Amino acid sequence: MLRQAVGKAVGSQVGWLQAEAGRLPLADAAFDWVVCVNSFHYFRRPAAALREMGRVLRPGGALVLVDWCDDYLSCQLCSWWLRWTDPAFYRTYSLDECQALSEQAGLRVVGREHFRVGWLWGLMRLVCRVAAG
To answer: CA angle, 95 as apex, 108 and 39 as ends, to 5°?
Structure first.
């Protein structure tokens, strides 16, 4: 995926980095926003990844997390199948499970929803904030 991203024309303000989500080689409080889309189901250590996302956010910063949602039967079935067939896949979460993981990581959930994309995919979106100063 990183090779795909590097090939995109996104401007000079973007830097590319490969790292484990639970051990980001980035400074504390370095970013206003962290966006994690369609990758959380690959993370072997989701709690550590969320703690790291919070660590690199400035006080008042926000995390937007969008991923498959186990609140939908289609995602549960897909999750089951991928656990057997895709070694990179880890697991999907319900909206409540993802909120609990985020709160355990010290993030304050300020927005949450689950929604359908087409007839098959069910997604969730959480918006979390880091405590201001």
So the answer is: 90
pTM of the model: 0.90
What residues have CB less than 8 Å from 4, skipping those under 6 apart? none
| 5 inside domain | no
Contact 21, 1 (CB under 8 A): no
Say which DSSP state 41 is in: G
Contact between 106 and 57 under an 8 Å Cβ cutoff? The reply is no
**How confident is the model over 90-128, as pLDDT tens digits?**
999 999 999 999 999 999 999 999 999 988 889 999 999
**Residue 96: helix, strand or coil by DSSP?**
helix
Structure tokens at 52: 């790291």
**How many domains would you assign to the chain?**
1
Distance of CA 57 to the CA centre of its chain: 14
